[in-house]
């Protein structure tokens, strides 16, 4: 049996890569992909605890299925927003989308 | 009729309101509104005087404010003194209204001028009718305001604007004294009524020191208003106003209000020898002081202004030496002949195209007949030539000073009378005889300007008869009725001859120098160079006041301004600058880049977690 720590480490590494990508990439689709990465790192945690955790049961796997569903919906909405944004501003560079700036 | 005396000040007030509302429409017709109002006032005043001569003092008052034991009243009163004043004020105001129609017709703001004249007439008549000293004080301030407005009528001229300010501020010094006097009087007697004050003095309810202090405070108000030394400096500058205003306000009525005030409060002054002596000496000093300046001045209006100050000093001198009737008699005669002289000067100024320097006149006798003759009458009257008005009143003053004053005061009075005759005829000979020295040919003015001169000219001849020996001193009997002012002195034949000789002497000297030119004009100034320089510079009084009062005040003002500007404003501005720079500094951090926000959020989250761990001791 592999210790739970290894799975958690994998999840943490994956989360950090995703977070780094979200904070640094300028291509807006890549940012969205990185968000998926972060969600999947959470899934790894859920599944890991459900199989090798101290109180192993099926709840974690069910939760991960929920997360995958929500993520799919989120990607659909996110991509729709991206298309609308691209049509309006003709750019997929996140730096150029700065409407929140103080004038 | 006497019950309707309150209408006398109301007519000019109506004229003022009408001109305020419709002045722009009426324009030059505004003159007729003012003239009508004053004519009505004058008719009423004459009726009131005749009724008063045969009747009793009429008083009508209503309660105004009641507090504690005291009640302040408001109303009007017709005593012999104010019945006489009503005639003087309405008559002079009427002729000035008539005179101004042409004198001011070139001015775009003639309707404003007439509305101010109306307001002034209302205030002055209200002052005269006031039954108590508080009401008098209200109108006292109102006439001061009108004086300010009219002196500064041509406010676009810097001299006029600053003269108006000077007049207002200088009289304000006296008014503060008057206000203090009124407060002290109320404190001592619990009433503002004249009668209560006199009764309290008679019953000895007020200590002698207090009577003197109150009398002197009230006198300070009179000093300011009547331009007595040392608060006389505003009156010559007030000549920047239109000439009819100088005739009405600064010769006949408002400046006489100070003398009137002392007259109204006379029993109070009589109770204090110290106060009376001070009144007499201030009057005497003012009389000779102003007369000496008038000897050398070249501005026709300023000579008359100094002459007015000098004559007001004469009135104060008379009042200060128990000459109650003499002072008020001179007030009346002076109002007529000085208004005549000022309007004559106005006619001359208008005729020679707005020149005021007598060196640029000359030879007007042939060119302006009516003006010249009436001016000569005025000059003879003020010099005190028999049988003109000034002779009778001045002789009364001499008698009063001789009887109750000391020889020093009498000497001053005689010297001043000599100077008066001299400077008036210096003015007359320089302006009206010899060759014309100006550049525009002068012309006589039409009836609207000469009629007032003729009316006042007649009055300057006959006004003195009301208190002459051959009418049995009628005015004296009238004025002293029901008021305890003591025995009035009368001069005999000898004194009359002396005063006449002095007047003739002054005129003769003026004729020798300026008429016949036997002595050069420059002989005396050359002989007494230092004295001449002193007089030309008006004893350096303005310069002295500039150094002693104006500069320190301006200095304090500048220091306070600097404190306000740099310290108070500095603190406020500092707060604003800090707030704004913090705001703009933080605003720059709002880049609109969600990734930047994300970084900050993550770092903050990590910092919070790390802090929690450290404080809980999870790291060791």
From TrEMBL, chain B:
GO cellular component, alphabetical, reads:
plasma membrane
Q: Does the keyword Transmembrane apply?
A: yes
What residues does the NADH-Ubiquinone oxidoreductase (complex I) chain 5 N-terminal domain cover? Answer: 64-114
Q: For this chain's UniProt record, which GO biological process terms are given?
A: ATP synthesis coupled electron transport; electron transport coupled proton transport
Q: Which residues cross the membrane?
A: 6-23, 30-50, 81-100, 112-130, 136-156, 168-186, 198-224, 245-269, 275-296, 303-329, 335-352, 373-393, 408-429, 450-470, 490-514, 597-619
Query: What membrane topology is given?
Result: Multi-pass membrane protein
Tell me where in this chain the NADH:quinone oxidoreductase/Mrp antiporter transmembrane domain is found: 130-420
GO MF term set:
NADH dehydrogenase (ubiquinone) activity; NADH dehydrogenase activity; quinone binding
The record, for Pfam families, names: Proton_antipo_M (PF00361), Proton_antipo_N (PF00662)
UniProt keywords, alphabetically: Membrane, Transmembrane, Transmembrane helix
Subcellular location field? Cell membrane; Membrane
What main location does UniProt list? Answer: membrane
Homology family: Belongs to the CPA3 antiporters (TC 2.A.63) subunit A family.
By what name is this protein known?
Answer: NADH-quinone oxidoreductase subunit L
Supply the source organism for this entry.
Texcoconibacillus texcoconensis
């Amino acid at each position: 049996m592999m210790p739970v720590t290894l799975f958690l480490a994998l999840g943490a590494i994956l989360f950090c890569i995703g977070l780094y990508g979200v904070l640094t990439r300028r291509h807006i689709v890549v940012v969205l992909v990185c968000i998926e990465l972060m969600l999947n790192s959470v899934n790894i945690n859920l599944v890991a605890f459900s199989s090798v955790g101290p109180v192993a049961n099926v709840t974690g796997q069910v939760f991960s299925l929920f997360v995958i569903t929500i993520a799919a919906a989120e990607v659909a909405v996110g991509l729709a927003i991206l298309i609308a944004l691209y049509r309006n501003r003709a750019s997929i560079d996140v730096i150029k989308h700065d409407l929140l700036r103080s004038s | 009729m006497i019950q309707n005396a309150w209408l006398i000040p109301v007519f000019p007030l109506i004229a003022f309101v009408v001109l305020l509302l419709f002045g722009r429409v009426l324009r030059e017709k505004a003159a007729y509104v003012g003239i009508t109002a004053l004519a009505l006032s004058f008719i009423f005043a004459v009726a009131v005087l005749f009724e008063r001569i045969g009747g009793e003092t009429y008083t009508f008052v209503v309660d105004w404010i009641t507090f504690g034991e005291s009640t302040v009243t408001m109303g009007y009163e017709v005593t012999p003194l104010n019945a006489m004043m009503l005639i003087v004020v309405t008559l002079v105001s009427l002729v000035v209204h008539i005179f101004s129609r042409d004198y001011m017709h070139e001015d775009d703001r003639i309707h404003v001028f007439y509305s101010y004249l109306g307001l002034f007439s209302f205030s002055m008549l209200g002052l005269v009718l006031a039954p108590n000293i508080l009401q008098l004080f209200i109108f006292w301030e109102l006439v001061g305001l009108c004086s300010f407005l009219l002196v500064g009528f041509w406010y676009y001229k810097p001299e006029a604007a600053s003269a108006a300010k000077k007049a207002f501020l200088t009289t304000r010094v006296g008014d503060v004294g008057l206000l203090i006097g009124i407060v002290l009087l109320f404190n001592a007697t619990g009433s503002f009524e004249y009668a209560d004050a006199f009764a309290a003095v008679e019953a000895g309810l007020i200590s002698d020191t207090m009577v003197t202090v109150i009398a002197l405070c009230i006198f300070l108000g009179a000093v300011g208003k009547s331009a007595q030394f040392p608060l006389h400096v505003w009156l010559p500058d007030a000549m920047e106003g239109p000439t009819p205003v100088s005739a009405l306000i600064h010769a006949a009525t408002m400046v006489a209000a100070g003398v009137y005030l002392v007259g109204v409060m006379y029993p109070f002054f009589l109770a204090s020898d110290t106060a009376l002596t001070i009144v007499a000496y201030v009057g005497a000093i003012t009389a000779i002081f102003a007369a000496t300046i008038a000897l050398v001045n070249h501005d026709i209006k300023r000579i008359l202004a100094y002459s007015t100050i000098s004559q007001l000093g004469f009135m104060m001198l008379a009042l200060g030496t128990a000459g109650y009737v003499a002072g008020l008699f001179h007030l009346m005669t002076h109002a007529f002949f000085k208004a005549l002289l000022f309007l004559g000067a106005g006619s001359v100024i208008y005729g020679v195209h707005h020149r005021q320097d007598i060196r640029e006149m000359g030879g007007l006798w042939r060119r302006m007949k009516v003006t010249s003759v009436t001016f000569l009458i005025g000059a003879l009257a003020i010099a005190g030539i028999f049988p003109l008005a000034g002779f009778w009143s001045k002789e009364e003053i001499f008698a009063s000073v001789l009887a109750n004053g000391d020889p020093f005061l009498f000497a001053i009075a005689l010297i001043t009378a000599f100077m008066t005759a001299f400077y008036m005829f210096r003015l007359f000979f320089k302006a009206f005889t010899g060759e014309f020295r100006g550049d525009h040919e002068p012309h006589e003015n039409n009836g609207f300007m000469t009629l007032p001169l003729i009316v006042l000219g007649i009055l300057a001849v006959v006004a003195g008869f009301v208190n002459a020996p051959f009418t049995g001193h009628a005015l004296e009997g009238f004025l002293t009725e029901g008021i305890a002012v003591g025995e009035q002195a009368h001069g005999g034949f000898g004194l009359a001859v002396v005063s006449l000789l002095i007047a003739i002497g002054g005129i003769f000297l003026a004729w020798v120098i300026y008429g016949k030119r036997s002595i050069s004009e420059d002989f005396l100034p050359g002989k007494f160079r230092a004295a001449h320089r002193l007089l030309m510079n008006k004893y350096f009084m303005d310069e002295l006041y500039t150094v002693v009062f104006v500069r320190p005040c301006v200095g304090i003002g500048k220091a306070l301004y600097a404190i306000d500007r740099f310290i108070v404003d500095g603190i406020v501005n500092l707060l604003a600058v800090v707030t704004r720079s913090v705001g703009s500094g933080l605003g720059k951090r709002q880049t609109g880049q969600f990734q930047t926000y994300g970084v900050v959020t993550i770092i903050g989250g990590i910092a919070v977690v790390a802090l929690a761990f450290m404080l809980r001791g999870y790291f060791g």
